[in-house]
Amino acid sequence: MRRTRVKICGLARAEDVLAAVDAGADACGFIFAPSPRRLTIDEAAALCELVPPPVGRVGVFVDADLGFVCEAVARCGLTSLQFSGAESPEACSLAPRPVVKVLAVGTEFDFGHAEPYQGHAASLLLDTYDPQRAGGTSQSFEWRSIGELPGWAPIVVAGGLTPARVADAIRILRPFGVDVSSGVETSPGVKDRALMDAFCAAVRSVDEEVYGR
């Protein structure tokens, strides 16, 4: 059966990393960009040690210096990188790990904007456009408005997902993966074990409904 991958992002506490892994997350996200959940490399390295293979360790960056990205990869054992800023296709190609390139979805979104990243980014993450923030908006975009997903890259959906809403996102978009942060928190950077369990269970349940056993 096809399975939707789950990334729990913005992890900042050891107990939350362990709970995310126990809940069944396929990847754990650690933020190195301006955010209430921002970590130093030292802090992220300690948390990444708690993530067992094959669970992914994703570093989230916004227009970061390549040297800083390389240091984070080396120190934290990151398995992939999420570029959430205005990084160019060339910057994605130079990155030391596969890149998930974030696309901000606003009222005039067009997948044609993603075409330059074909062959440079390993996957695309759709998040809600906010003029003040690069991701982490806690708001959903209109899932039915974006048209047919491109076939050349796996698509991950983020933005306002919760245990109650993730099933609808999967039914409508059939993405490769879903990405949640604030939707499983009690406050910024403080995850809730029950919400993480419920989110992963909701994904597994809708996968059975949509894709069958």
Strand runs, count = 10
Largest sheet: 8 strands, parallel, barrel
Mean pLDDT: 94
> Count of helices?
6
In summary, what is this structure?
With 213 residues, the protein is of the alpha/beta class. The protein has helices at 14-23, 41-48, 66-76, 89-94, 166-173, 193-211; strands at 5-8, 27-31, 56-61, 80-83, 99-105, 123-128, 155-157, 177-180, 185-187, 190-191. It is built from six helices and ten strands, in the order βαβαβαβαβββαβββα.
Blueprint of the fold:
Blueprint: E1 5-8, H1 14-23, E2 27-31, H2 41-48, E3 56-61, H3 66-76, E4 80-83, H4 89-94, E5 99-105, E6 123-128, E7 155-157, H5 166-173, E8 177-180, E9 185-187, E10 190-191, H6 193-211
Parallel strand pairs: 1-2, 1-8, 2-3, 3-4, 4-5, 5-6, 6-7, 7-8
Antiparallel strand pairs: 9-10
Helix pairs in contact: 1-6, 2-3, 5-6
Features:
213 residues; alpha/beta; 6 helices; 29% helix; globular
Structure description:
- It is built from six helices and ten strands.
- The protein has an eight-stranded parallel barrel, surrounded by four helices.
- The mean pLDDT is 94.
- With 213 residues, it is an alpha/beta fold.
- The protein is globular.
- It is 29% helix and 21% strand.
